[in-house]
Every structure is written in structure tokens, then in C-alpha cells.
Amino acid sequence: MKLKDMRLLSTEELKTKLSDARQELMNFRFQVTTGQLTDTSRLRIVRRQIARFETLLRERELGIKEGEK
Asked: Is the torsion defined by CA of 16, 19, 21, 27 positive or negative?
């Protein structure tokens, strides 16, 4: 999901997606531990996605608009 698509989501949808991504990351970590995960690049992708969600939620909390500094 691209950042501009994420910005179109409501705050509640962002929180739901963040929760889902955290659950997915936990599942991937279990798979790595048990040796079942073959595509380890997904770990990095999910971690970055979580960071994007958290950043967007924090921007909304602070009232920062897109393009402001």
C-alpha cells in the first residue's frame, strides 16, 4: 500500500491496519524461529509498513497536514 493511499484511510482504519500488520509481524517471527519462513524479506516490508502507519497516526495526532513542515 502506497503512502498516498494510506493517507486516504480514516484513523480507525489506520489503527485496524496497524493492528493487522503487527499480528502479521508476530506470525512471521514465529515462522522464522521454527524455520518455516522462506521469504525473510517480508519481515522488512512489514516493519516498514508498521512505521508508516505509526507515522501517519502521529501526524494526525499533532495536526500536521500533508506538505507542512
From this structure: negative
- Say if domain 3-62 classifies as CATH 1.20.1560.10: no
pTM above 0.85, yes or no: yes
What is the average per-residue pLDDT within 45-55?
Answer: 97
Set of cell numbers at residue 8: 486516504
Cα 24 to Cα 40: distance, rounded to the nearest angstrom: 13
Tracing cell 497516526 back to the chain, one arrives at 57
Q: Distance between terminal CA atoms of the chain?
A: 24
3-33 confidence digits (pLDDT tens): 899 999 999 999 999 999 999 999 999 999 9
- 55 three-class SS: helix
* Domain boundaries of the chain, sorted by first residue: 3-62
